Each structure stands twice: as C-alpha cells, then as structure tokens.
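Box 3.1 A note on notation
Throughout this textbook, protein chains are presented in two layers. The first layer is the amino acid sequence; the second is a token string describing backbone geometry. Keep the layers aligned when reading.
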Amino acid sequence: MSDQTQLSVETEQHDKGVILCPSGRVDGTNAGTLEGVIRDQLEGGQSVLVFDFSGLNYISSAGLRVLLVAARDTQSRGGKSVFCGLSKQIAEVFAVSGFDKILAVHSSRDEALGAI
C-alpha cells in the first residue's frame, strides 16, 4: 500500500533552469513534498522550472494546485514553469482540468527547454 502513495522528486541542473523529475504519485498525502522541493528551488534563486513528468503516474487536484502555484510564483519572479513528459493519463487530467490551456505543456524535454 505504501507504494501507491510514494513520491520522489529528482532535480537536475540545466543552464536554462532546473529540471524537476517527480516519479510515482502526487496526491493529498504527499503534495507537500513536491511543494517543498519547488519552494527550495525558488528560494535558492531559480526562476525557471522544467517539470519532466515521464516518471509520474498519477496527480490529484492537490498536485495540480501545487503546479499552479509554482507557475504563478515563477512568473512573478520573471521566469516560467514548463511541463513535459506527460503520460496519457496525466495529459488527460491536464485536459479535463483545463491546465493544458493555462500551463506551458510540451511533448518532450528538448521542446520544453527550447521554449524557455
């Protein structure tokens, strides 16, 4: 059962910003973990965040809220948040919620980095 609520977030430095690679699930029990990683990056001076969701298999409304706050916070710092690597399931959640219209979603990491 603990497998189902596990989340890990790896970060990779890139010359254009930081790449955040969450894997597992983002839900109400662990959205704070992702929020903490994002906050640490922003407080460390990053203003460009690339979210690579290729390892993510589930995101709840709590996770979506974290992403919306991250996008707002990076924009207020003169940067941006971009998203890539969405599985079919995650892309469907983005489409149903309308997040694919308000967030910068790209099909690949290279495309996302090119959009910065």
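Strands lie at 7-14, 17-26, 48-52, 55-59, 80-84, 104-106. Residues 10 and 21 are 5 Å apart (CA to CA).
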